[in-house]
Amino acid sequence: MVYFSSTASAEPKPEHSIIGKLEKIINELGLLERVKGKRVLVKIHVGQNVGFTSLHPFIVGFVVRKIKGAGGDPFIVDIPEQVKNAVYRGYTPEVIGCPIYPVAGPADAYYVEKEVNYKNLKVIQMGGFCKDADILVDLSHVKGHNTSGFGAAIKNLALGCYTKKTRGNIHRTMQYDKYWFPERCKDVEATAKRLVNACPHGAIKYDKGRLRVIFDLCNQCMRCKLVDQEDCLKIQRVNFESFFEAMAITAKFVMEQYDDDSRFFINVALDITEYCDCWGFTTGNILPDLGILGSTDIVAIDKATLDLLRDKPLIKENVSRSLEVNDDPELHPFARIHGPWKDPYLQIYYGEKYALGSPEYELIEVDPPGPWKAEQLPPPRFPKALKLY
Predict the structure, then answer these.
(1) Is the pLDDT of residue 66 over 70?
(2) Rounded mean pLDDT of 339-367?
(3) What confidence tens digit (pLDDT) does each residue in 237-272 have?
(4) What would the mean pLDDT of 359-363 be, rounded to a whole number?
(5) Three-state SS string across the chain, please?
């Protein structure tokens, strides 16, 4: 079950506003009945540098105040390097209403390890604060993501609850499956140079006999393959999908710290930009504002978010000129700018595979009804516009 409130307002009243409808979602989720006398971890992503379209501090503070009003003891976490500068984006105790901590402590050294042995990701280090709470509130800003297509509830836990070392290792899983075959090249240096020069995104690097594809930057345009006459380089799905599967593994470990009825997910689909907030700058919105969603199922809420955005118009003029827009109408808007093998629905596929939740959901709109319905009224007859000049 996924609760949804759109940005549309039935009437110009506070209860019909985004915050008014967020309050109704919180009530419908049953969150406030669970928090009394409990420590509540609120996981957010505060962004960094000159970014200002991350999750609005007022929204965070509103959720925190509701939890405190119901007798809960909330605290907020994010990764250390972003928490230390969170004040510049308005995440102060006075605004958000509770402490904000680095998820693995200020030295990134307070963590719980688990052996996973997934490709070259052998051990994961989950921030210790994730096990120091009774209730999880995963409060996520919806946006694009250059590696996973988009970021929301799953990504917020999968990377944002781990040490810097683990986050780096999650990205490095994309390097595990072999893709460079220099033994096939007649002239390795010449072939590598052609491949590097063919990539418009700077995703191919070559140094001292080693060629590396930075899959985070690759949008699978395949221009490199046009100059690869000897098939020395493989651009293949398996490298990209490693990141999605690793995210499911790490998100699952976080969720295992909480009982099934102690996990709550809220996606805020406003100010939807092309990149993750960790890039540290703000671009124009690439999709129209959608609204807010809430659920107790992490897979269902991300699936519903993607489904609701699927037919929304991509605002091409706001896409960075360094990216290319794929005009394939079958692709999700996020995949149109980050590449078909970064299909955001892969998060749903691997989320279901690792039993994080279910992609099947019932969407319930919580928007209050308007004072009248258009079909009950005769067509409007507006006066003609005045000609002033």
Answers:
(1) yes
(2) 96
(3) 999 999 999 999 999 999 999 999 999 999 999 999
(4) 97
(5) CEEEEECCCCCCCHHHCHHHHHHHHHHHHCCCCCCCCCEEEEECCCCCCECCCCCCHHHHHHHHHHHHHCCCEEEEEECHHHHCCHHHHCCCHHHHCCCEEECCCCCCCCEEEEEEEECCEEEEEEEHHHHCCCEEEEEEECEEECCCEEECHHHHHHCCCECHHHHHHHHHHHHCCCCECHHHCCCHHHHHHHHHHHCCCCCEEEECCEEEECCCCCCCCCHHHHCCCCCCECCCHHHHHHHHHHHHHHHHHHHCCCCHHHEEEEEEECCCCCCCHHHCECCCCCCCCCEEEEECCHHHHHHHHHHHHHCCCCCHHHCCCCCCCCCCCCCCHHHHHHCHHHCCHHHHHHHHHCCCCCCCCCEEECCCCCCCCHHHCCCCCCCCCCCCC
Q: What is the pLDDT of residues 289-329, one digit of tens each?
A: 999 999 999 999 999 999 999 999 999 999 998 899 999 99
Q: Residue 302 and residue 305: Cα distance in Å, rounded?
A: 5
- Domains parsed from the chain with CATH numbers: 2-173+241-365 (3.40.50), 178-235 (3.30.70.20)
| pLDDT tens-digit map of 194-203 | 999 999 999 9
